[in-house]
Amino acid sequence: MSSPTPTLSMRDALYETPGPRTRRRVRIGTAITAVVVLLGIAAVVRQFYVTGQLAPRYWSLFLQWTTWRFLGQGLLGTVSVALTAGAISLVLGLLLMLGRTSGVRPLAALCRVVTDFFRGVPSLLLIYFLFFVPAQLGVKMPPFWMLTLPVALAAAGVLAEVFRAGVNAVPKGQVEAALSIGLSPAQTMRKIVLPQAVRYVIPSLIAQLVVVVKDTTVAYVVSFPDLMQNARVLITSYDALVSMYLVIALVYILINFAINKAAVYVSRRTGAKIIR
Amino acid sequence: MGLSELLSTYGDKYLQGLLATWSMTAVSFVFVMALAVLVTVARVSPYGPLRLVGDLYVQVFRNIPGVALLIIIAYALPELRIVLDWRTCVIVTTVLLGSAFGSENFMSGINTISVGQIEAARSIGLSFTQIVRKIVIPQALRTTVLPMTNLLIAVMLTTALGSQVPLNPQELTGVVSYVNTRATGGVLAFLVSALGYALSALAISFVGNRLDKRVRILR
After folding, report:
1. Any idea which fold A61-270 has?
2. Among B6, B22, B8, CA closest to B203
3. Which one of A25, A70, B68, B123 has the lowest number of neighbouring Cβ atoms within 10 Å?
């Protein structure tokens, strides 16, 4: 029935090699659950049908090239915000980590507070902050930065911890060896620890991009034209709320799924664990 | 606006906001844990379709942005004649998102147990339910204390989505946008809410770390 998998996962190890009776029971169980799942899907489709949501006028807009072009423009906005925020958070996260591990007491304490703060505050709150406060102080900020900065700050807090885990993963003996051959602490960090730590956290950094992409979804708060905001525009012009939100959600899910898969792939190849 | 003025005008709002955030977090987390257990059971069950649904569930809710899910639940479901009140919408969103991550935590907790232990248990004659009850669950629970602590904090931060729907009472993030649309709250208005979150997170991780130290399995 099932072919033996090369790596025995815990899922499978839990079960003994089934005898004839258990095999029959599993077959019956599989059939029952399959029916239940199919019934569930049928119920969902039925609800769509009964409420008229399957009507072609809700779905035909996805056959038009202009729809996808407009959504594509939004996606471009999402990608540019995500990549910019990602780049900023990399630098900030690294700086926060370096400050925290610098050994200079006041600096370390400050970096620790800043890291914990950005990790412990919802990104939405930070977005509202950049939406309201600069304007109140008379600073005019483009929507792009009202979105990118808070997303970057929230990610920087997390990345600082990821980097720190990477630094901690470098064996202590190497630091001692480096110091004993006369390298300064700064040189040790730059030449011995960081190169290894960064390599170690690369899969985690990729995985963290998912969080950044998710955080950009509230772009409509600052009315920046990202994928979600453009979808909302299309909804008002086509009056196709359910279909549009479902399609958009699927697009986001696929993007993030791909990023996660990439992270797992790199993690498998390098043998470095994904830290969350 | 100074701190005293801010607190005398909006102090009640902030307090209600903090309590709303806490209560939504607590309610959500209970359901997150329950659903995470169910999903994990489905994923390790011997039935193919159930495993598939469990895996799909996790992939969908791990990868969907919170706002997208909230909008679907709050605005798309009514068109399918499923109407929930605003607070329930936020909680359902949080629970769906959180339980996917919770199930991932449980799965990696289960995976830290070595296959040899299961083989050993089987060879001394333990039944399947005994293996699950006495070997797998206790160890999986003990290794997931720290990830679940982080999940609880994440659940709290996710309830900030409540600011996107008209909640009453509003939660901490909603309060800030409420204050700022009425007055020039400035940095301070945000700091009050932010401290509410950050200090709660600090308290949660303090307790979680203490608990983890007591129950962690040293390997």
Report:
1. MetI-like fold (1.10.3720)
2. B22
3. B123
